[in-house]
């Protein structure tokens, strides 16, 4: 709701209000649903600060932090996806395309291999993502001309390198550590220790990016045009790159690499709402958060007590709806 | 007057309850396998086990009636099949676990996700972290779990019998001539166990020599060439569980191996040897019998 009021100067409020409503519904649903069924009255009691101790624990200490973490992670992934697509002017760009999740994964798996605890694994993932970002930044910056294509190519090649290292780490890891490592690679909200980092970074990023909306609209049409219109293209591009990387790093650190959200959510929104960044950025945040919250709710309830990795659900939910939108939009 | 009487009797009742409560609710403590002391105000009455092996251990420790939940694949003893599930050992359903209101959760150090165990700890649920590594570990775990579950006597008896039977079996095969053995855990990729693993210790107890005992990883992946180079006299596998394991059949392509020439390809029931529980002794007996057959074929 804070988000909706912040974009008062934005071009169209109706879609954002709808998305905010959807987000609230998704959060409500994720509090109401779980592998244990809690009657609606009991749920209301808990939300009023009363109710049984067990219900309070389930709702307030398990479901609420996890729902908020899922919302924040989804919001970050979708927002950084939207930024990457503007930055690289490539529809296939997603938060992971520049090798960030690869760097995070290599560092996290190495930490697991060394037998480090959960906090250190998360710290390693963050460090790995930042290191990957700096390497790509440095190499793409290097000598010679700089273009988004060069950045993209550098990132993609780095990602391939990280992929090989991930395979190597998995191959030399003791068998008993493998399941934990594979599950980390799949991405899972069960790993989220606290929802606050993702929520805070999502809020700050939105506040930073919103005033840039009009400039981003110009940039999305091409660097030369933007330069001709007086946009300081290079600094803006590096800001985008750093911010998007930071958001991805925090998301990956919280929940491992969850695919699909960052690629598809901005595209789905563009198909419906057009390509106005002032609208697309907050809409991506809300829709990404909503999608991941719903997906995580399904992941933990669908075949409970068995738990599914959330990435499976985001793709299974997202792919048909994306294809439908794409088909309709011809 | 009446009220005072009730008041008094109520006080007495409370005192009595307090006294008897104190008498039965003695604090129990045990050191877990992560070297933490786990203390409970009273023996646990609602226990959740987070691996199939731990479930078996708890039943063997006489705590079966206090088990209220377990994870997938817990199939022994048969009573365990009826227990409510709280997900799989590698992905726990914390809601399903909390709703069982456990007063003790026995977790598996190398098998359960650490993030989820941390969350349980933060919720104030007593955790006993378990990692049974060898024969002594089985007996020792039985005793410690029995203490926490208030079934100390029966657990101690089971542990003592397990130790005694292990000692007897060891004595029986002490003089047996050594048999170089390859124990196959998996086929693709080819995996075995190193000398620290309890299966290797079971082999050693029967006079078998694990040909990969010196490997550094607990469950190393090995190349087929290194198996051929070590030329084991017998190949054992938990494999698919049936006597005609396709894994063993594929060794017959290497007709010059000693194990193949003498037909020393044996299947042992994986649930008897690949879980570190009291049934390991039964599995070890089977291994010993197979190795005796191998000696007879010399």
Write the layout of secondary structure elements.
The complex is a heterodimer of chains A (330) and B (298).
Chain A: H1 2-6, H2 14-32, H3 40-47, H4 53-88, H5 100-113, H6 118-141, H7 148-172, H8 178-186, H9 196-209, H10 213-220, H11 223-228, H12 233-255, H13 261-273, H14 277-301, H15 310-328
Helix pairs in contact in A: 2-4, 2-14, 3-4, 4-9, 4-12, 4-13, 4-14, 5-6, 5-7, 5-12, 6-7, 6-12, 9-12, 10-14, 13-14, 13-15, 14-15
Chain B: H1 2-24, E1 28-31, E2 37-40, E3 47-49, H2 52-60, E4 67-69, E5 87-88, E6 91-92, H3 94-99, E7 104-108, H4 114-122, E8 127-130, H5 135-149, H6 152-172, E9 179-184, H7 198-205, E10 208-210, H8 224-230, E11 234-237, H9 246-249, H10 258-261, E12 265-267, H11 270-273, H12 280-296
Parallel strand pairs in B: 3-4, 3-7, 7-8, 9-10, 9-11, 11-12
Antiparallel strand pairs in B: 1-2, 5-6
Helix pairs in contact in B: 5-6, 7-12
Would you mind describing this structure in some detail?
Chain A: Keywords: Cell membrane, Membrane, Transmembrane, Transmembrane helix, Transport. The complex is a heterodimer of chains A (330) and B (298). Chain A is an all-alpha fold. The two termini of chain A are 33 Å apart. Mean pLDDT of chain A is 86; it is low at 1-10. The radius of gyration of chain A is 20 Å and the shape is globular. Chain A contains 15 helices and no strands. Chain A has a single domain (64-328), classed as ABC transporter involved in vitamin B12 uptake, BtuC (Orthogonal Bundle), CATH 1.10.3470.10. Chain A has helices at residues 2-6, 14-32, 40-47, 53-88, 100-113, 118-141, 148-172, 178-186, 196-209, 213-220, 223-228, 233-255, 261-273, 277-301, 310-328. Chain B is built from twelve helices and twelve strands. Chain B has helices at 2-24, 52-60, 94-99, 114-122, 135-149, 152-172, 198-205, 224-230, 246-249, 258-261, 270-273, 280-296, and strands at residues 28-31, 37-40, 47-49, 67-69, 87-88, 91-92, 104-108, 127-130, 179-184, 208-210, 234-237, 265-267. The A-B interface holds A 34-36, 54, 57-58, 61-63, 117-118, 171, 174-177, 179-180, 183, 188, 190-191, 193, 300, 304-307 and B 72, 85-88, 90-96, 98-99, 101, 110-111, 113-116, 118-119, 123, 185, 191, 217-219, 221.
